[in-house]
From TrEMBL:
Entry EC no(s): 1.1.1.271
Name of the molecule in the record: GDP-L-fucose synthase
Assigned protein family: Belongs to the NAD(P)-dependent epimerase/dehydratase family. Fucose synthase subfamily.
SUPFAM superfamilies given in the database record: NAD(P)-binding Rossmann-fold domains
GO molecular function, one term: GDP-L-fucose synthase activity
Functional description taken from the UniProt entry: Catalyzes the two-step NADP-dependent conversion of GDP-4-dehydro-6-deoxy-D-mannose to GDP-fucose, involving an epimerase and a reductase reaction.
Species classification: Eukaryota, Metazoa, Ecdysozoa, Arthropoda, Crustacea
Pathway: Nucleotide-sugar biosynthesis; GDP-L-fucose biosynthesis via de novo pathway; GDP-L-fucose from GDP-alpha-D-mannose: step 2/2
Transmembrane portions of the chain: none
Source organism: Daphnia lumholtzi
């Protein structure tokens, strides 16, 4: 049976994963092997498969694979400094990518699209806990407003496609994701991969791990494999158009200092950590509510942070030469 014929067997799912070679895509590869379904065929795209900013290239990809479902992870991403300098580029390029993916999904009759947003979609000035109803309540943080508005527009498009065409397009909003295949760049990487790379260097040089700021700000971190399992739940079972926050419980919120200590212990750093309080802290907290997730999955077990960080450190040590850095 060819790919095109699969579309007439309603049990068969051809799941196209855009941005499939990154942190979350690689985790979904692993999670679907742990919980396989006979009727699911996954196709993981990378940038080598075509430029999703280009309507014709995107159409060719969709016509080639004829997906019944799409997990949309692809985006133009960058660290804080890059975002601040290029807000227009982040806005335009992400709007193009998202519009091409969603419109081709509509044109080819894709049954369900799950797109990935980010907690940066939430207003800069907000009350806590943040929940799914607050996305459009005020402007995002000015540092990366281009990226944030492009991501917000996915939610707008999802509702518009549903209202006008009955499409089942939805989105998830993960908190701070980390794990194997992350971006461990010292300038552009996020907190955990950046600290892991710094600790790797500190270990080699016999120095302590220097942590910028007071170490007091609180964050919710989610291991990429846990996030991938939740992505599969959303793909298979979540029926709402409104987005859903994928996050650990508020009780699992942890300080940057505690995270740094776990990383230092994982590397067995003789000189521990040193806090450089001359550096700025950023926002003290960004607590997101996972109440909606817990109504669906009250018993979902997240991997303990210490175990997840140790696994990520082990992966980085084994894969230092190929890791993004």
């Amino acid at each position: 049976m060819g790919l095109g014929e699969c579309r007439f067997d309603f049990e068969k799912k051809i799941i196209l994963v855009t941005g499939g070679s990154g942190l979350v895509g690689q985790a979904i590869k692993q999670a679907k092997q742990q919980d396989p379904r006979e009727n699911e065929t996954f196709i993981f795209l990378s940038s080598k498969d075509g430029d999703l900013k280009d309507p014709a290239a995107t159409q060719r990809i969709f016509e080639r694979y004829k997906p019944t479902h799409v997990i949309h992870l692809a985006a133009m991403v960058g660290g804080l400094f890059n975002n601040m300098k290029h807000n227009l580029d982040f806005l335009r390029n992400n709007i193009l990518i998202n519009d091409n993916v969603l419109h081709n999904s509509y044109k080819l009759g894709v049954k369900k699209v799950v797109s990935c947003l980010s907690t940066c979609v939430f207003p800069d000035k907000t009350t806590y806990q943040i929940d799914e109803t607050m996305i459009h309540n005020g402007p995002p943080h000015p540092s990366n407003f281009g990226y944030s508005y492009a991501k917000r527009l996915i939610d707008v498009q999802n509702h518009a496609y549903h209202q006008q065409h009955g499409c089942h397009f939805t989105a998830v909003i993960p908190t701070n994701v980390f794990g194997a295949y992350d971006n461990f760049n010292l300038e552009d990487g996020h907190v955990i991969p950046g600290l892991i790379h710094k600790a790797y260097i500190a270990k080699k040089e016999g120095k302590p791990l220097v942590v910028y700021g007071s170490g007091k700000p609180l964050r919710q971190f989610i291991y990429s494999i846990d996030l991938a399992k939740l992505f599969l739940f959303v793909l298979r079972e979540y029926e709402e158009i409104d987005p859903i926050i994928l996050s650990v419980d508020e009780s699992s919120e942890v300080s940057i200092g505690e995270v740094a200590q776990i990383i230092a212990d994982a590397f067995q750093l003789e000189h521990g950590i040193v806090l450089d309080s001359t550096k700025a802290d950023g926002q003290f907290k960004k607590t997101a509510s996972n109440n909606k997730l817990r109504t669906y999955l009250p018993d979902f077990q997240f991997m303990p942070l210490k175990d997840a960080i140790e696994r990520t450190v082990q992966w980085f040590n084994l894969n230092y030469n190929i890791a993004r850095k």
